[in-house]
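Sequence only, no structure available. Ideas?
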Amino acid sequence: MCGIAGIAHWDGRPIAHAALKRMAGALVHRGPDEEGFYRNEIARSGEAGAAAASGRSGAGGAAIGLAHRRLAIIDLTSGQQPLANEDDSVWIVFNGEIYNYPALYRELSIRGHRFRTRSDTEVIVHAYEEWGDDCPGRLHGMFAFCIWDQRRNRLFAARDRLGKKPLYYHATRTTFVFGSELKALLTLAEVPRRIDPTAVADYFSLLYVPEPKSIYRDMRRLPAGHCLVADATGVTVREYWDVTFGDGPRRRAADLEEELFHLLDEAVRDRLVAEVPLGAFLSGGVDSSGVVALMARHSSRPVITCSIGFDDPAHDESRFAAEVARLLATDHSEHRITSGFAAAVRRLPAMFDEPFADGSAIPTFFVCLMARRRVTVALSGDGGDESFGGYDKYVKERIERRVRRLVPAFLLQAVQRASVGSGAWPRKARTLTSQALRKPARAFYMSNCCVRDDELRALLAPSLAELIRDYDPAEQIIGHFQRPAVDDHLSRMLYTDIKTYLVGDILVKVDRASMASSLEVRAPLLDHRVVEFAARLPSRLKIGRFERKYLLKRALGRVLPAAVLARPKHGFSVPVGGWLRGELAPLMEEALGADPDLKHLLNVSHVRGLFDLHRSGGRDCGTLLWSVLSFALWHRELGRRSREQPSLAA
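Reply:
I predicted one. Tokens follow.
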């Protein structure tokens, strides 16, 4: 696992080694082991990597600089980057792991390519030489890479299919810069830092900034499953992979279960290749327990596992993790979080570089820190819910779908008017009828939305609210919901979450939290072959009459006991509402009062009123206030460095 960055000046302006050094330094946590550079300019004494340059500017006069920070996992002695092909005409910086690199190595060797290392990085270089822009489709794994093609005078970049590894970029007519994280781009003074008002609206609606946006309007994110070509004519982005939903050929459930088990087993086995200590996260839930059980099948030693516990029993899964650890005889460690939340929260802005309000980032960061004490690579159970239908909202949405089809709108409206009162049942009736009265895409957006449109307008500063008056954050969800060519409602929901929530929240959280700890995390359930297989399954094999993730549980039943499979989904949630009444209350006061520029973005007096209401117990505003706290801390640390006010002007 690594950090990558680079600069291209299409007009041939020289690239200072110091600029590349700053970009690499901002990514040292992603690669603490080694540092490397390449520039296609005349070498200067003492500048690492420049000696390998050709001694001339690239064809057409472009100046190129590449920077790399390495976390050594495979080929520890000779896998240094940037790395080149045989004649130094193709250079790469790469972040990730390619699990099928041994097979590609053999195929490319037969085709005449000569290798100087045993690294998966060099396989990508020769795959690009052999298959050109189609090479990402040949790679199995998680990756973000950028290739400088000196003969064609262009950069070629790609991200893995599901978006496990990030890549940000900024482009002008004469310059292209990129990096694994925004912090690398932010080291360059010439990169504008204008806040994108629509990204602010997206953030408060979803608790993350969805791709291809970043919080800055001049810095973009290469979407998952896409590749990019940058040259003197501009930037072209295209999709090379998408997951296709729809029932495959009719087959017996038992045969599908057999195939799924072997796919899962192969995905886990592929991810056990490493020349450093390897372990797993264990929550005690179905997905992580299944991954650990499959790891145990291929290990001659007890699997190293770790888990996090809370004193609050409503948010504590540690007893379940301990039970599974005993069943599977793992080498298990547990860490209980009893304090230190405020210190962890203060670290989030520098970790994510933009507002991010998934509270589970805190326990994820703690479990990564804990795992890093014993291993360099950890496997996780991420991805099972999005592919196999594990969230409550999928069941609720299916109910709403049936109500929408069977009950006339006038009856739904009558029930909604009659559902008065503050009790649980009236609230549920109002929620069900209001959702059923909406179109399916809009209803699913509301299921994912954390701050309603009316709340959003009240939350934002009036000037910012006016700027986004005609912008609808629901577009981020509705566009994906309408894309699959299927009538099946569950398939549309799963597709949308794979394209939005998974890549924008879950995978960002895991990447940043793990990389902040210099830990590599691998997710077997997000092997693209598993995701593609799940997409072809009938919905009844994902959510049955009484069970979610039906076929996944049947397949994992070969390695897990029934008690684990029957355990209700818990989730990696945290009690942010309680924290904001306790340990985090002073931090909230500090965040609202210490940044005078915050008033240009948020209605601070409105937020203070909500905070007072929350602390008094008059209303639970925990999620909304947590999103405000995360935003305010980010703005104080990073966002206020922008001297330009938000604008929608071109």
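The mean pLDDT is 89.
Hope that gets you unstuck.
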